Amino acid sequence: MAAEPVLQSTLTCPHCGHRASEVMPTNACLFFYDCPGCGELLRPKPGDCCVFCSYGSVPCPPVQQQKACCG
Prior knowledge:
- With 71 residues, the chain is of the alpha+beta class.
- It has 2 helices and 4 strands, in the order E-E-E-E-H-H.
- A two-stranded antiparallel ribbon has the order 1-2.
- It is globular.
- The relative contact order is 0.26.
């Protein structure tokens, strides 16, 4: 039986280093995120499905469960 996904992830802005703890949605991907520190609009890195997979301390729930994500 697969473990329940972790829904809390800390996003770290690559521009200013600001860290923010966010709850990840389980039914949608987050493609854009406005950094509360510098206001920069974060987008996923090439090959990543969402900002949590690119800048989060934990990848998004579908990736954690080795499922197709948001594609």
